[in-house]
Amino acid sequence: MRVFAISDLHLDYAANREWLQQLPLHEYNDDVLILAGDVSDRLTHLEEAFKALSRRFSTVLFVPGNHDLWINRDRMRDSFEKLQTVRSVAQELGLRMDIFRQGELAIVPLQGWYDYSFGAADDYLKAAWADYRNCQWPGYDEAAVTKFFTGQNPTLSSPALLDARQIISFSHFLPRIDLMPDRIPDKHRKIYPVLGTTVLESQLRQLGSSVHVYGHSHVNRQVRIDGVNYVNNAFGYPSEAHFTRRQLVQVY
């Protein structure tokens, strides 16, 4: 059994959907795929991805990203309703959003959002960032949304983690801002406040993760920090094809 990872498929683009459908049908039948969010804000494209990947992999593990919880195109009441719908579709089509266990290996999904622990959101970001228009969390600010998600994450006391010798965790959102490389221009650092939360870092450290897969930033890299290998393998938008891998990456 091998474990592969990818995120940010953004199937709203035809070129990305074509790539998905050309994945070989029989190369990964004994393998696991970590799908780290941002498949599409359209349920039809989510279903397309879930069906295609379930046919190709033994197990597909999933956490939703921010785009998956946009409500405008599917005319949902709010993002809580969209989240429940996405979870139901994933379950119906055989995807897993819980702990996967095989022998001494455990793979742990970590849900999250952003709580400005990476910096404060200024007026420019609040006007430009599409989540503020396309997500609705009635009665919740960003810190409360983050707490809602991270409060559901597994802990080391979870029965499924008993005697696990190796733990791989994954999230859509970044667990630490220094995963962004120094080469990022200042103009692009304006989005840092909405990239993730330090709560995820605390949780993966408490789990004892040796590998953590994340998405969201569209900055593909593998880096080791304080004993943890962090892996971002975002497929990204067609306009980003010159710097994203646009292929599966094996993490185990």
Automatic annotation (TrEMBL):
Transmembrane ranges, per UniProt, are none
List the Pfam families hit by this protein, alphabetically: Metallophos
Q: What is this protein called?
A: Calcineurin-like phosphoesterase domain-containing protein
Give all residue intervals belonging to the Calcineurin-like phosphoesterase domain: 1-219
The chain's coiled-coil residues are: none
